[in-house]
Amino acid sequence: MSTPLPYGHEHVQLLRQALDGFGPCVELATRWGEQLAVVLSRGGRLLAVGNGGSAAQAQHLTAELVGRYRDDRPPYSAICLSAETSTLTAIANDYPATELFARQVEAHGRPGDVLVVLSTSGRSANVVAAAHRARRAGLSVWAFTGPRPNPVAAEANEALCVAAGCTATVQELHLVALHLLCAAFDRYETAAALGMTLPAVGVLS
């Protein structure tokens, strides 16, 4: 029997509980934002994928980078592979379902680029395939998932795993993490444009 869907104050309480253990995710999302600023400022590209609600969040991320998160800055190359409708339907018509994102990664990704994959379950076969293809092509793969262990996290270079049993809570904290990433990206990009030196960021996996 499935777990009853939380609602009202119970939903909010589950979110509070998940936030209590969110500290390491804050640090990881911030580091990813700084690293991504380095990659994109050197001419690299971000690719992002997800299914359903995670597809919407992948598109949210790329929109923030091509547009802006808060302050004005140059646009950067970021493509949401979940939003390429003609390409998606062409691939779905001619290839297995697991190729839906993987083939696009192979087409657009270059060594040194970053692939962000989002999956609340961490078990979406097309996302796992995209991560595997990206690693093989020399991209760094960053995963946003639900609780460990899961196949998407295992395939990624690094994974931000939200320890919550409710899909809605995982998605809500993924959005928080995406905003943290964007804020760190803008802060680092602005500092670099002004010639300021920020503390060194970690080396990409």
Protein traits:
12% strand, 205 residues, Rossmann fold, 5 strands, 8 helices
Verbal overview:
With 205 residues, the protein is an alpha/beta fold. The protein has one domain: Rossmann fold (3-Layer(aba) Sandwich). It is built from 8 helices and 5 strands, in the order H-H-E-H-E-H-H-E-H-E-H-E-H. The chain has a 5-stranded parallel sheet with strand order 2-1-3-4-5, with helices on both faces. Helix 1 crosses helix 8, helix 2 crosses helix 8 and helix 5 packs parallel to helix 6. It starts with 8 loop residues before the first helix and ends in a 12-residue tail after the last helix.
Q: How much of the residues is beta strand, in percent?
A: 5-15%
Q: Unreliable runs, pLDDT <50, ≥5 residues?
A: none
Helix content: 40-55%
How many distinct helices?
Answer: 8
CATH hierarchy, class? Alpha Beta
Annotated CATH topology: Rossmann fold
Order of H and E elements:
HHEHEHHEHEHEH
What is the molecular shape?
globular
- Widest sheet, order of strands: 2-1-3-4-5
The figure for the number of domains is 1
Overall residue-averaged pLDDT value: 93
The CATH architecture designation is 3-Layer(aba) Sandwich
